[in-house]
Amino acid sequence: MSKKAAFTSDLDFCPECGSILPLPGLEDVVTCRNCQYQIDVAEFDGVEIHSKVTFNKRENKSVPQTEEEYTGPTADRKCAKCGNEGMIFTTRQTRSADEGQTVFYTCPVCRAQETEYS
Predict the structure, then answer these.
(1) pLDDT tens string 75-106
(2) Which pTM does this prediction carry?
């Protein structure tokens, strides 16, 4: 069933292409989804698989109450609500990596928020 492997590895990985192997099921072989390499299920006998899901803890961010609490880099951008020149901004990658970042602007005077998808 299984042919001579290109390199040796843990049973979690395909010895031919290095891809992660699917878990053994009801079939007699485990087949790599990438290169179709097959490993006999008997080779997995006695192997224990443990998994754990860990969630990140939520951060409790307080909303700034005064103008002094608004800190960060400023941009030469006019607030659409109060007309103040200069808005504080932060950037986040909210879409896929090959797309532009999202810029969040906050007015330090009236606390108006604007979003720009670049």
Answers:
(1) 889 999 998 898 999 888 888 888 888 999 99
(2) 0.43
> Residue 97 — left, alpha, or beta (φ > 0 → left; ψ -120 to 50 → alpha)?
alpha
> What is the Cα–Cα distance from 14 to 9, expressed in whole angstroms?
7
Please tell me what DSSP assigns to residue 74. E
For tokens 């998994």, the residue is 51
Beta bridge partners of 106: 88, 113
**Residues found in the chain:** 118
CA end-to-end span of the chain: 53
